[in-house]
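USER: My hope is that you can spare some time for a protein that puzzles me. I am handing you a single protein, as its sequence and its fold in C-alpha cell form. Walk me, if you will, through where the backbone shape changes along the chain. The protein I mean follows directly.
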Amino acid sequence: MQKHSRKQRLKFSPKSPLKHLAKPTRNPKRGASASVPRGPAAQDSGGFLSLLLERIGWDQLNGLNQRKHGAGRPTHVLERGQLLAALVFHYTVSWTGSLAEHLFCLLGIQMAESTLSERRQALPFEVFAQLLRRVLVPIAQAGPQAFFGRWRLAAIDGVTFSLANTESVKKQCKKAGNQKGRAAFAKQQCAVLVELMMHNPLAALIGTSGQSEWKLALGLLDQLPHQCLLLADRLYGCGAFLLAAMDRLKQRDGRFLVRVKESLKVVRRLKGFKDGSQRVQIKALDPANYHRVAGLLEVREIYATIQRRGHRPVRVRLWTNLSCAEASAHELVCLYAARWEQELYFRELKWHLGINDLLRSQTPETAAQEVAAMIVGSSLIAHERA
C-alpha cells in the first residue's frame, strides 16, 4: 500500500463541497492543550465553526442531553460541543483523515483515536436527535423555484445505508434476504424531509431500533414547516399516510401532492373538472389493522401519460388537496417532476459527503451518529450555498 505523509493526507479532495473551510495548523507543543481556546474563540478552520454556530450556539451544543456526575462535574474531559463539532466536520469534509486528525485540524486539540472512540460510544443518540431538530431549519430567502405559489416545496422519502460487516454489526443487526439468499450488508434506515431545489434537509429520523421507512416518515410529519407543499412517491400514496398528513397540513396551511399506485381503488367518484381531474372519495385503513377503516377522505385525482423522446410512455396517477383554482392538472403533473430533487440530495449525501453508501463506522450506534452528522453537514452546505 502506498504511504502518504501527514501533510499529504490532510489535503482536500477537489470535489469537496467544503474544500475552503479547513486549513491544517501546526502541531501544538506537548502540554499546551490546557491553553486551547474553547467555544467560539477556538480556531475556525476557515469558517466551518462559524457555519455551525450560526445554527446552534456553543452553550447549546454542550448542553444537548447533558448528564453530570454526582459531584456536578461533566462526564467528559473533552467538551461535548467540541466532540459534536469534530464529528460533523469529520463526516462533512471529503478528504482523507481520522477523527483525531480532524479534531486537531478544527480545534487544535490532540487526542488518541481510541479515546475518541470511547467518547463516541458514551454519547447517547438522543444528543444527535436533538442536534438534528435544532440545526435543520428552512432557508428563509429561497429562490422562486423553491416555491409553488405561496407554498414551500418539500418532499419526504427514505434512504438506506450499508453497515460494515464487523462483529458488533453482525451481533446486533439482521441482514435482509429473499429467495436468492441474504444481503451482503445490514442496512441503516433513515427518513428525511427535504426542502426541494435548495437540497436542504428540514428534518430527519434515523432508525436505531429497526424501524421501517414508513414509521420513520410518519414521525417526520410533526416537523412539517408552515405553508409547505409536500411531495411524495407511491409508498406514501395511500389513505393511511394522507390521513395522518392532512391533519398536520391543515394546522400549517399546507398542501400535498403524491403519486399513487394504479391498483388502489376509490370508494366513489364525486365530480369531474374541466382539466380532466376528478374529486374522489378514498378510504384510509388503520396501519395497525388493515381490516379496519380509520376514515374517509376526499382528494383530487389526476391521471396523465408522460412521454419522453426515446422512452416508452409512463402513466402516472396523482392525489392532491390543491383545488383547480390553486393549480391546474397540467401544472401539477409538471410540478411532480420536482420530487426527483430529493433523489439528487440523497446522491450528494452518499457520494459527495460519504465515500459511497457503505458507512465507515464500526458499530450500529456510531453508524447512526455518522448519518446524523452527514445530514447536519449537508444542511450547513445548503445554507452556505444559498
